[in-house]
TrEMBL record:
Gene3D superfamilies: 1.10.520.10, Peroxidase, domain 2
Organism listed in the record: Vitis vinifera
A matching Pfam family: peroxidase
Top-level taxonomy: Eukaryota, Viridiplantae, Streptophyta, Embryophyta, Tracheophyta
Listed name of the protein: L-ascorbate peroxidase
Stretches that traverse the bilayer: 306-326
Amino acid sequence: MEVQASTSASAPAPTPAPLVVNAEYYKEIERARRYLRALISSKNCAPMMLRLAFHDAGTYDALTKTGGPNGSIRNPQELNHSANRGLETAVDLCEKVKRKHPCITYADLYQLAGVVAVEVTGGPTIHFVPGRQIRPSRKFTLLLLNFVAGADHLRSVFNRMGLEDKDIVALSGGHTLGGAHKQVSGFDGKWTEEPWKFDNSYFKELLKSSTKFPTPSNPPTGYSQQKPSSSAAGEDSTGRRLFIFSTDQALIKDPKFLEYVMLYEQDEEAFFRDYAASHKKLSELGFVPPTWTSRVITAVKNSSTMAKTAAGVAFATTAIAITFYYRQRSQRKEE
């Protein structure tokens, strides 16, 4: 069953002023990116930041063109929904970034945090285009997963967001980071041996799961999990249990999903390539970047490159001048 929630605000929020993405805004994005790298690394919060970005974007409905990555998850009625339990910490951490870089919209900030979370844990570089506008909304709808459901349910949720089979499998690979916590979801465990490293190990674990996690006739609430007999059969080196949800198992039970699982298990580069594309798509649901945004980004990057080149030329010129000076001085002494 698809889990949905709709909440109406008591009064519509005022319409924000149009966002202007100019060279200075893009430079501020780059400054915030550097701040986020340090913050996420020091707080060890990459899984949480990735979840924040996914959940803010996960309200998108392709049929009605509503929701999406618009920063609305910080609103109390949405943040306090049970599906977003635990994300208050991520929102609070992002407030530190917002105070330091106030001109950046929350919509851009949350998606940038998700992009950086993947990159600092060893994942692919995800092309980030700024310019998401905060959109006031009287209600929100969460298109969430029921973790005991199968492939049809997965498609119904992700297809409503405009995402396809490849996107579903690639984005599921984000489970390589983090795990489930009883105080947040009621579940406890993690998907991979190294939950702070972004790689293709999620798919490796999935393809081992038929022997590690036999599906019981009456599966535990929410996920398929059995106490393994040894560390090789489902525990990490600390004894913490590895587990998979039924929705994870659906990826190896459905033939079309399985094709991508097998590809990504064998070829990490293919996974990184497809994940980066699908993550970008998710982060831009309902967002149409202004046509001139790419020109601003290119201009800023070119100016940075030119500045570095100019500095390099100046350094080389100075080095040549110094070398020439000392050679001349040495020759005078010899004479």
